[in-house]
Amino acid sequence: MADLDSPSTREVCGTMAVHHKLLLQSPSYKQRCEMFENRVFAYRTGRRAPAPTGVVTVPVVVHVVHDPASPSQNIGEDQIRSQIDALNRDFRATNPDRTKVPEIWKDLVADIRVEFRLATVDPDGAPTDGITRTPTTKEFFTADEDDIKSSDTGGADPWPSDDYLNIWLCDDLRDSIGRQILGYAQFPGGPAATDGVVIAHSCFGTTGTARPPFHLGRTATHEIGHWLSLRHIWGDDGDGCSGTDFVDDTPNQAGHNFGKPRYPRVTCNNGPHGDMFMNYMDYTDDEAMFMFTAGQALRMRACLEGPRASFLLGALEPARTESVALGPSGNGETRADSAARASLAGEVDELRRQIASLRSLLDRIGGILDHAG
Question: Which residues, in sequence order, are bridge partners of residue 168?
Fold first, then answer.
């Protein structure tokens, strides 16, 4: 694997390249993106408020794509679980290093109220540990081709993206011009067959093959931020000052930051406090990023109530509700409780079928529009 510490190889994230490619290829994707930004604008301006919901739990499937000739690529369950733990700390703002946030921004540190767990049931209803393992002979995968996401191109097929967050892991991941990257994601609204996150195993989790400076699980935090609609904090306009991440409480800054900047780092006339380089959506080392903001939390909530609403609905499933007091049946619920639970399960299943049917219809319409365009 190439040296990711070298400045010449540190593009870090390939998400925006994937986004721009989809914009060019798919008018329906462009339209869905515009519709979502309209939704976010309504949230930002107070015309629409987030629904009062509890913590949303997202089922995760991790597809480990590995070369059998290099056993270290087939990373262990402990490393995968260490990443899930890191995600839950970062997205719930319980990460100990959040205390390093400068005083001026401490009040902006946000609990996203999203948690992640490895799936316990596969698409066929069978028990699972939420991990698939796929041998491959490919030396590397590219964000441009999305080739890790299909068994036909040496990767692993996704699980239904309305029900699971698909995370693919590989040894060597590259962009369209051959630069090595840490990961990439697909924004909401893209094709279901390629929806998810891809990460190099050397920057996944906090143990095993994870190595500094990307050894605290923040690459996955960054990419899942994209999966929940967040943009890079500098607005992706190169080193200019005209870009935006569509979030009101993140300062405008000129370009990305690498390494471990010293506070304050002033760009784009954003003094005296400068860049919020400790935000998860910058490019700093894992040890230098440790916060999402309230504005980013609002954008992610808009995503969960919009294009990723299936996960919000999934949080209502009976298996994930709080336990009830022991009743006459002796197994934790009364007959009335059991009947209500069964009724809710039926309603949830029907809603999920309707969402799946609508998603399929939208994909077909999008395909027709793209072909006509």
Answer: 63, 198
267-296 pLDDT, tens digit each: 999 999 999 999 999 999 999 999 999 999
How many CB atoms neighbour CB 117 within 10 A?
Answer: 14
CA dihedral 258, 262, 264, 268 (to 10 degrees): -30
Mutual angle of helices 27-44 and 335-372, in 10-degree steps: 130
Closest of 74, 199, 211 to residue 143, by C-alpha: 199
Flag whether pLDDT at 353 surpasses 80.
no
Residue 170, pLDDT > 50, answer yes
Element (H, E) at 248: none
Residue 190, pLDDT > 60, answer: yes
Tell me whether residue 134 is exposed, middle or buried, using C-beta atoms within 10 angstroms of its C-beta: 0 to 12, 13 to 18, 19 or more: middle
**Which phi and psi (to 5°) does residue 109 adopt?**
-60, 125
Distance, CA of 184 to CA of 21 (rounded, Å):
13
Contact call for residues 232 and 282 (beta carbons, < 8 A): yes
Q: Which residues pair with 135 in a beta bridge?
A: 66
- Say if strands 181-185 and 197-200 run parallel, antiparallel, or are unpaired: antiparallel
Q: What is the distance between the alpha carbons of residues 289 and 283, in angstroms, rounded to a whole number?
A: 9
Active site residues per annotation: 223
Residue with tokens 């490393």: 79
Output the DSSP codes for 67-115: -TTSGGGS--HHHHHHHHHHHHHHHTT--GGGGGS-GGGGGGB----EE
Helix, strand, or coil here: 147? helix
Give the pLDDT mean for 138-155: 98
Q: What DSSP state is assigned to residue 168? A: E
Measured between its terminal Cα atoms, the distance across the chain in Å is 40
Output DSSP code: residue 127: B
Beta strands at 181-185 and 12-13: parallel, antiparallel or unpaired: parallel
Nearest to 211 by CA among 280, 155, 140, 285: 285
Helix, strand, coil content of the chain in percent (nearest 5): 40, 15, 50
Question: What's the number of CA atoms in the CB half-sphere (13 Å) around residue 176?
Answer: 10
pLDDT digits (tens, 9 = 90+) for 206-240: 999 999 999 999 999 999 999 999 999 999 999 99
For 42-62, letters b (16+ CB in 10 Å) and e give: ebbeeeeeeeeeeebbbbbbb
